[in-house]
Amino acid sequence: MAKTIRNEYYKKLTYEKLMEAHIKSRKGKDLRKEIILFNLKQEEYIMWLYEQLKNKTYKHGGYTVFYVTEPKVRKIEKSRYIDRIVHRWVVDNFLEHAFISQFISTSFACIKNKGMHKAAQYVQTCMQKAQRKWGEYYILKMDVSKYFDSINKSILLEIIKRKVKDENLLWLIQEILYAQKKETGLEIGNYTSQTFGNIYLNEMDQMIKHKLKIKYYARYLSMIV
């Protein structure tokens, strides 16, 4: 049974853990201007952030929008760097522990020690087993169209509330979710969005594996095989 979060917000809210989230967030990006400027006064910024989260006066900032064209055109919404530290802190200290352990073993996207290559290897293994068992077989491959844009935040929040009973943490999660005051759609550029996306589709995974009892099933975020 995955852990239910109660009264954990202030226990995990420390200068050290926020600094750790900053160090993880800047990894591989130290030459970017926003990171260089933040690093110049990182102790002051982290202490300021700590006080904002402690007093619950923190407000998620706006987004910078840009587009990527490979493998397809996608709208990316990039938050302020200091907000990305908060995203990392929330995922690493709360969401991972409460939710990821309950995911099915064949969910591969945005999970430690999983990933695209392991997903492909698993599908190949399933194909080999199907070949030996049935000879001829079929594969159903699906993708959720515009997945992140279609996520209903109210539904997502209700799923999260099953495990998160800490009102302070729920306040922060809602601050992140509703920073843009829209009911539908998650920002692709957020670190939290990857985990939120997995939490949302885990409902379908559980139904397919345990209610429909589909034996050979794999998911890589919104692509299902």
Protein model, in words:
- The structure is a single chain.
- The protein is mainly α and 225 residues long.
- 54% of the residues lie in helices and 8% in strands.
- The protein is built from ten helices and five strands, in the order H-H-H-H-E-E-H-H-E-H-H-H-H-E-E.
- The longest helix has 21 residues, at 191-211.
- Span between termini: 26 Å
How many DSSP-defined strands? 5
- The dominant shape is globular
Q: What's the pLDDT, averaged over the residues?
A: 92
- Sheet with the most strands: spatial strand order: 3-5-4
Fraction in beta strands: 5-15%
Helical percentage: 40-55%
User: Main sheet?
Assistant: 3 strands, antiparallel
| Helix-strand sequence | HHHHEEHHEHHHHEE
Task: Count every helix, treating DSSP H or I runs of 4 or more residues as helices.
Answer: 10
Low-pLDDT residue spans? none
Radius of gyration: 19 Å
Which structural class do the helices and strands define? mainly alpha
In short:
The protein is mainly α and 225 residues long.
